[in-house]
What we know:
The protein has helices at residues 30-40, 115-123; strands at residues 22-26, 44-54, 61-70, 78-83, 107-111, 129-140, 147-156, 162-168. By secondary structure, it is mainly beta. The protein has 2 domains: 13-93, Roll (2,3-Dihydroxybiphenyl 1,2-Dioxygenase, domain 1); 107-168, 2,3-Dihydroxybiphenyl 1,2-Dioxygenase, domain 1 (Roll). 16% of the residues are buried. The model is unreliable at 1-5 (pLDDT under 50).
Amino acid sequence: MAASEPIQSTFNPEDHDLILRRTTLIVRDVKKSLAFYRDALGMEVIYDNLIRRPHKTEEREEVLRLVFLKSVDEYYGVLGLLEYDYEYAGKKDKPIRKEGFTAGNSVLLFNTQNIEEGFRQITAVEGIEILEEPALREYPSYDGKSKIRVMMSTVYDPDGFLVEYNQLLDPIEIEE
Length: 176
């Protein structure tokens, strides 16, 4: 499949024993996260609800906001945003860790067809820190015999999660 061709899925979840359905980020402010993931990256909100439950250690109700976003499919590859104590401000003061590519951290990787336009939208979001502007990188292909060229950029989202925003310049062929 060429990098510019749309994804056509014949995926059936019943055909697989294990599927990575969703990654959920614990965020300080869902609205700021939505400005990045929904508005700048273009992910679609498929779930947005408040969850009310008794607080585990205090005599009060805890209110959480849980949002799911999709880029391609509603069943797998979904990103969750979870804001604890939605109406209780005390937890938002925790320092933001920006430790980059170190053990214990994760990297969210998004591919796009137009990195220039998308990167302009990303840089307009409040709270985004740019680590690397789009630049050409080469990686070994899956077979190890050729190279995959990628325009790669790296940013921190409003909560300090590391995000790669890339455009594939070569097709990726995976042998089965």
